[in-house]
Amino acid sequence: MKNRTNEQLCALAQKGDTEARSLLVEQNAGFLRKTAGELYRSMNLAQSNLCVDCEDLVQEGSIGLLSAAAGFDAARGIKFLTYAAPAIRNAMTDLIRAEFAQFEQKVVHGENELGIQIIRLEDVRSEEEQAQRIEAISHPLAHSPEEIYIKQEELSELYQALGKLSAREQTYLLYRFGFADDTAHPLLGTALHFHLGESRAKRTEEQALDNLWLELPWWY
């Protein structure tokens, strides 16, 4: 049984074989942990005040994997893990969304009692983030003089445009797209970081990008 492929285990699991279901999870534990780790880091969950750790994500991912196994059809010629990956990630993300919704309710009804320190867009000094990022990018590293010049010209135009936005919009975009730390953060992760609802974060992003686009020189 242990030497069977994912696809073979799926076929057995669909017939009600509980051992095959367990082996399917065990056999793909590495992928589950890798996906959980990527989400945990990209969404900065360690600093989010949510009661979610990697093991919670792995458990939810296992449920997503088994749900995918129930609908898997090997005749389509797709590898099981390729088919199951979106369901695994969605299951993990759904857990984070559910925890975030509960966290929002707690903060609304008793922020002071919880002693939670919330990062708000209005409280972040985007000027410092921007200055630090420009200084870091300006270092030549291994680029040729021509590459450095072109990159600095493009970045100069971008930061000039960013400088014309509100501090709130600057801060959001600097974090969301990795200008501040070279790491682009997903929408939900950015919402968690700034304690915004997901829909509000999306509206903030759309408005900020629209305003940025209008300030870029190649728009005219």
UniProtKB/TrEMBL annotation:
Keywords: DNA-binding, Sigma factor, Transcription, Transcription regulation. InterPro entries: RNA_pol_sigma-70_dom, RNA_pol_sigma70, RNA_pol_sigma70_r2, RNA_pol_sigma_r2, RNA_pol_sigma_r3/r4-like, Sigma-70_RNA_pol_init_factors, WH-like_DNA-bd_sf. Pfam families: Sigma70_r2. The keyword Transcription applies. This is Sigma-70 family RNA polymerase sigma factor. It comes from the Bacteria. The keyword Glycosyltransferase does not apply. Residues 56-69 form the RNA polymerase sigma-70 domain. PROSITE patterns: SIGMA70_1.
